[in-house]
Amino acid sequence: MSERPFTILCIASEPKGVPFIRECKQQGCRVLVLMTEEKQHESWPWESIDEHFVMPSLSRQPDVTYAISYIMRGQKIDRIQALDDYDVATAASLREHLRIPGMGETTARHFRDKLAMRVQARDEGMLVPPFTAVFNYDDLRAYMADVPAPWVLKPRFEAGAVGIRKLHGSEQVWRALDELGDQQSFYLLEKFVPGDVYHVDSLIWGGELAFSIASKYGLPPLAVSHG
Predict the structure, then answer these.
(1) Which tens digits make up the pLDDT trace of 52-95?
(2) CA 105, CA 88: separation in Å to the nearest integer?
(3) Do 112 and 162 form a contact (C-beta atoms < 8 A)?
(4) Which of 146, 159, 190, 210 is most buried, with most CB under 10 Å away?
(5) pTM of the model as a whole
(6) Does domain 114-191 fall into CATH 3.40.50.300?
(7) Residue whose C-alpha is closest to residue 156's, from 89, 220, 57
């Protein structure tokens, strides 16, 4: 009996990660891709994809877990890789459920949850703008009394400047929270700090930093999205 190929499932809400998919195939892996119905006709590297699966949404649970668990009945999956920011949490949840090695849900929050990022950075001694979770209203009042406006109300799980509001007083904050209703705990409030914005892309291998590069945005994302 021939040895089973190493199988990688790629979760891709957007047609990204083409070099990764091709390299996996070149390395002898069996490559599976889970994509959305909306993006199934995009320019995917079909020559490097052994099998693909389509769903209306890749974030709707437990639908995705049901689907991948069903696929696992007929074939083993060795690794799960997210190819887009919005797929990181889904991939982590699937790894946890299927006990597949890789980043789990708690660690994944440090890459997707803006509140978890800030708490982790602060606890590690990094400088971060003053911020607060939107959980307890007494804590929120104390924060607004201590930290001068303007503030930014940020969704914890969006990318870039999507959904961010710049607020100039407590009344605007309370009004915004009323509008959010039960969604408000999925936001954080942070001191607005004007200036240039940078990001750092890094590759960690075996717990060691293998590659790192800092890049500057042409304009701050908030300036682009809000004019």
Answers:
(1) 999 999 999 999 999 999 999 999 999 999 999 999 999 999 99
(2) 9
(3) no
(4) 190
(5) 0.83
(6) no
(7) 89
